[in-house]
Amino acid sequence: xxxxxxxxxxxxxxxxxxxxxxxxxxxxxxxxxxxxxxxxxxxxxxxxxxxxxxxxxxxxxxxxxxxxxxxxxxxxxxxxxxxxxxxxxxxxxxxxxxxxxxxxxxxxxxxxxxxxxxxxxxxxxxxxxxxxxxxxxxxxxxxxxxxxxxxxxxxxxxxxxxxxxxxxxxxxxxxxxxxxxxxxxxxxxxxxxxxxxxxxxxxxxxxx
Length: 208
Fold this sequence. Notes:
By secondary structure, the protein is α+β, with helices and mostly antiparallel strands. It has 2 domains: 1-30; 33-207, Trefoil (Acidic Fibroblast Growth Factor, subunit A) (Trefoil). Helices cover 14% and strands 34% of the residues. It has 1 helix and 12 strands, in the order αββββββββββββ. Strands 1, 2, 3, 6, 7, 8, 9, 10, 11 and 12 form a 10-stranded antiparallel β-sheet that branches. It has a two-stranded antiparallel sheet with strand order 4-5. Strand 10 and strand 11 form a beta hairpin. It comes from Capsicum annuum.
């Protein structure tokens, strides 16, 4: 009888232990791999970085430019001169408690080394400058994930031996946004960032 009592006691204990272990494993799998800078360190929130193209001869860093005689909004552009670092940026993951930028995770991107008098420096998607083109511009907002801020969220994914920027927000369960990689479109001699299904801009992250 004593052996039977021990077995009856152990069974629910084992079931609880298995449940806790399974929950831990599921949470561990949900933690995505961190994005690394060129020094091999995790990219952090609250820290300034330069986004630069991978490899030589592929242009310089990122800044803003005006196109088609429009100064509002300004588009995110790439310097043609590869020696130009561009403007520094910070990343803000959708989870405000997260201090590491992780792969395939929604985040806001904000220029930190510039001030624009009539606009924020947060990245967003804008479709009215060039018809049927999803350009990356400034003028977005940080936080408040949902339908109203759908155009303000970007992701970083691995691409070959470096990374790529992606627009495919997951902050609205009922929304069906256009998704694509961030590439470069030449408009009147200016290299502007846009969402497309062509070759993405392969990038690396350099801590300021």
